[in-house]
């Protein structure tokens, strides 16, 4: 019903407006007695065989919602009823910021992709904390953190550290987002020496808490083999807990969308099916080069159970969806979990 009826109507309107409309719809529907139970009955698959233990956390199932969907942690309790094993909120920055000028979110319907240049628009750290205090403990919550756009390079680490310390009591794991192509002054975040400084500083802060939280690094899908080798070395050197592969891409190769349309859209990060193979290759490269020495969360172009299984076969331990959730609908999560159970039974 979603793809036949609901999606065609939603896709008639501006993507960002539809996003907020959908949020309001889910929130209001969830307030009606019995609706949460209906959502759970439709989309949640519970089975011990789906559980995964990773960096000291037990996930109900390996299918998560990627950062960027619930930036301000306003809907994670309701989204838990759609079958996710974990939800990543953010990217959260210390101060609230509007992000880049609108229009900044574009569908590539023929490609089943999205281009965005949102620019870390979010309500800021304190707003996220206020929402996270309402956590009903239904599933694991990740905190994706970044820097404010106007922050000077010498203060980047301070921004990450502020978010890390303040969010520490409220999330189960952290993601250092250093790979988003939609924020200014980005070059320093790709420098290995700076990443060593950032990671070590956050790890020192982590050690001051009685219960330490896993810390992951989110990387771009456009890294070459030399850069990926540096990531493997970086993880080994810092003993970081894991990697999320991958963020959005700046590559526009082999798209069905016309050059005129792409020029009209302009800059932004590409997500969805066009980056499926690219992100899977990154996962496979990291897994093989590291001899699977660290956990990998695979994300990028998962629009079917087959896509998710390919990521896991390539070396991912968990997967996340975002654009596929928008194009395929909430049944996607159930399809992936059902496929995993079927695979377990056949092995």
Helix content: 40-55%
User: How many E-type strands?
Assistant: 13
Number of domains: 1
Largest sheet: 8 strands, parallel, barrel
Rg, rounded, reads: 19 Å
Structural class: alpha/beta
CATH 2nd-level architecture? Alpha-Beta Barrel
Termini gap: 33 Å
Arithmetic mean pLDDT: 96
Give the SSE order as H and E letters.
HHHEEEHEEEHEHEHEHEHEHEHEHH
Q: What's the shape?
A: globular
How is the secondary structure organized here?
Layout: H1 2-10, H2 15-30, H3 35-43, E1 52-54, E2 57-59, E3 63-65, H4 76-79, E4 86-92, E5 105-108, E6 113-116, H5 125-132, E7 140-145, H6 156-167, E8 173-177, H7 192-207, E9 215-219, H8 225-238, E10 242-245, H9 259-265, E11 269-272, H10 276-289, E12 296-299, H11 305-314, E13 318-321, H12 323-328, H13 331-346
Parallel strand pairs: 3-4, 3-13, 4-7, 7-8, 8-9, 9-10, 10-12, 12-13
Antiparallel strand pairs: 1-2, 5-6, 6-11
Helix pairs in contact: 6-7, 7-8, 8-10, 10-11, 11-13
Structural notes for this entry:
By secondary structure, this protein is α/β, with parallel strands linked by helices. The protein has one domain: TIM Barrel, CATH 3.20.20. Helices cover 41% and strands 16% of the residues. It has 13 helices and 13 strands. The strands form three sheets. Strands 3-4-7-8-9-10-12-13 form an eight-stranded parallel barrel, surrounded by four helices. The protein has a three-stranded antiparallel β-sheet with strand order 5-6-11. Helix 7 packs parallel to helix 8. The longest helix has 16 residues.
